[in-house]
Amino acid sequence: MDIDGIAFDAFGTLFDLSALRTRTRQAAGHEGDELFAAFKGRLIPWTWHSTASGDYKPLHELAAEAVQAAAYEAGLRLELTRAEWVVEGLKELPVFDDVKPGLERLGQTGIPLAVLSNGTAEGIDALIEHNDLQGVFGHALVADSVKRYKPAREVYALALEAFGAPAERVMLVSGHEWDVAGASRAGMRTGWLARGEKFAPVLGERADIKAQDLRELGQRLSG
């Protein structure tokens, strides 16, 4: 497959969001797992609503409000400062076990790599540093720079501009079907990381490559 650049989604693709449970458990005790699940169930739909309504807020602000709303649903009283503390954990998420060996394999291909995230520059830079990935990605591209969230085409266009290539020569790799669909509709090539899940097409859009993890994706793209 001839491609000039690969852009990776961050949360849930490179970085394991479930690690945030450590903080929700500290904030809510035995109801911490329920708080995490309710928060996770809100975060992505709220980014869609934010973009559709034209009322953009940076991810950390939106996430803190989602934590508070999740706590309210669970009958918990959680001050905003405590919710913000939970969200600070987004800067310390670990990578999935397959990420570093997969990126190393992809690095051997010479294909330029980037992160393309709904986050902020500060947050993504912190994650890259926390996981010792400095120098791996040529670009850290964030929705905050265009004040819209994926699947808005303005976000995917950041990758095309960064790589200086047309959409059909740039691949988005994501662990989210809706993200794959958004990139596909923007004309990009797409890769989906299953990690044990079954792919469910969104709006009929299917990934060009499906792999169980980043190791397999790296093997397939490196030949």
Task: Kindly describe this structure.
The protein folds into two domains: 5-15 and 93-222, HAD superfamily/HAD-like (Rossmann fold), CATH 3.40.50; 17-92, DNA polymerase, domain 1 (Orthogonal Bundle), CATH 1.10.150. 46% of the residues lie in helices and 12% in strands. It has nine helices and six strands; from the N terminus they run βαααααβαβαβαββα. It has helices at 21-28, 32-53, 59-73, 80-88, 99-107, 121-130, 153-163, 177-185, 214-222; strands at 5-8, 113-117, 139-142, 170-174, 189-193, 209-211. Strand 2, helix 6 and strand 3 form a beta-alpha-beta unit. The longest helix has 22 residues, at 32-53.
Number of helices: 9
Order of strands across the main sheet: 3-2-1-4-5-6
User: What about the largest sheet?
Assistant: 6 strands, parallel
Strand composition percent = 5-15%
Integer tally of domains: 2
